[in-house]
Design a protein that fits this description.
The protein is α/β, with parallel strands linked by helices. The chain has a single domain, classed as Alpha-Beta Barrel (TIM Barrel), CATH 3.20.20. Helices cover 31% and strands 26% of the residues. The strands form two sheets. The protein has an eight-stranded parallel beta barrel, surrounded by six helices. It has a three-stranded antiparallel sheet with strand order 8-9-10, with no helix packed on it.
Length: 229
């Protein structure tokens, strides 16, 4: 399954290279809502909230009323999850709030928090984001890394969620292709839904991933027209 991505920064739809350098931006929200209306799921990320520089909550509420969205970015508490689900989000993505430690610390997983989320809202609405830069989990808007491999994080978090989102930050926004061997290895680590992102550029890649039971998020390839939306 192809999942289009909408990343919000400063009240606009953007595409960043490796989560940092701006490459594209749009403010024609109605156009993209119409383009994505036929998809079973759209990924909606609040980059301002992820980077702790603000939020785009008003825009998010507009999108989730119109599209089936899994929403992420700066979601830190059970109440955040409940609020987004109440606003109309289909699923909620959590990442940094699941981990303790940064800058080379132990990178311990917050099992009790993950268990609380699962107990209160169930597994199905929860997508846990395990994003990697240089083979290690990246947090705080991808600005910090912890000494934890994505595969280990997924093994420990599997009891508490309905799916995982893995973003290959090294290739994000570069349209250089997703490393299929990484997807294949991660697929073996979990029985949950597995969604991958980062560099996806062709229908052939999406078909290959789909045959492995892996869903694909694409942003840059859609916005540049390399993939038809």
């Amino acid at each position: 399954m192809l999942i289009p991505s909408i990343d919000l920064l400063g009240g606009r739809i953007v595409q960043l290279v490796q989560g940092e350098r701006p490459a594209l931006d749009f403010d024609d929200f109605e156009y993209w809502i119409d383009r994505f209306s036929g998809y079973p799921l759209v990924q909606l990320i609040d980059l301002d909230a992820a980077k702790r520089t603000g939020n785009n909550r008003g825009l998010i509420e507009q999108f989730v009323r119109r599209l089936p969205c899994q929403v992420g970015g700066g979601i830190r508490t059970l109440q955040d999850v409940r609020d987004l689900l109440a606003a109309g989000a289909s699923k909620v993505i959590l990442g940094s709030s699941l981990f303790d430690g940064s800058n080379g610390a132990n990178g311990l997983i917050r099992h009790s928090f993950a268990a609380e989320l699962a107990a209160c809202v169930g597994l199905d609405p929860l997508v846990f984001s395990v994003d990697a830069k240089g083979g290690q989990v990246a947090v705080r808007g991808w600005q910090e890394q912890i000494s934890l491999a994505p595969a280990q994080a997924m093994r420990e978090l599997e009891p508490y969620c309905g799916g995982f989102l893995y973003t290959h930050i090294d290739g994000e926004g570069m349209m250089a292709g997703f490393p299929i061997d990484v997807a294949r290895a991660l697929r073996q680590e979990t029985t949950r839904q597995l969604i991958v992102a980062g560099g996806i550029r062709s229908q052939e890649e999406i078909d290959t991933l789909d045959a492995m039971g892996v869903d694909a998020v694409a942003g840059m390839a859609i916005y540049t027209g390399a993939l038809p939306a």
